[in-house]
Amino acid sequence: MFEMLIPTTMFAISMTGTPGPNNMLLTVSGARFGYRRTVPLILGIVAGIQTQLLLVAVGLGIVFATIPVLQLLLRIVGVAYLLYLAVRIAFFSGSGAGTETNAIRPLRSVEGALFQYVNPKAWVMTVTAMSVYTIDGDIYGRTAFVVMLVFLFITPISVSVWAAFGTVIGRRLSSGRHQRMFNIALGLITAASAAFVLL
After folding, report:
1. Are the beta carbons of 143 and 30 closer than 8 angstroms?
2. How crowded is the C-beta side of 141, counted as CA atoms within 13 Å?
3. Is residue 26 assigned to a domain?
4. Which of 173, 68, 86 is nearest to 123 (CA)?
5. pTM to 2 decimals?
6. Quick one: pLDDT at residue 96?
């Protein structure tokens, strides 16, 4: 069972540490509100991924394989929401991190958790993790538990890096022009991540 730890850990790092909808949201939140006010979003993302892994482990992955239209519907909803977020990010008019007068508040934990259920990358990650890195038979439950523990350890570290990155950038956005350029760039990246899901 221990032979699965290294590949599962590498997969968790690559999936939670690379650009995607979660990390774009965390970068934006860090830049606008600072790291401390982004912590609830971090906790929500971690909780959402854990509940997804659990659901997939107990059979949701089989449901997706049996009824492919469900995954298609989730993908459509996810892409629509990502495009909505991309527009909000690109045209946000607030100033840098820690500003209390921002028109948009930081996302709460429950919103971060629920976002995972319309996040196509999260579904790909959790279904793949439970399909590839668990071992069938009597030890399936234990190996599924190990996969969940690996993600519980790796996810907070990976996503915290993106939130901290956003916080650092936010502190350096001294002018409104730089803030607008940053917002537009992140909006375009978020929209691009939605387009990638459709391919």
Report:
1. no
2. 1
3. no
4. 68
5. 0.81
6. 44
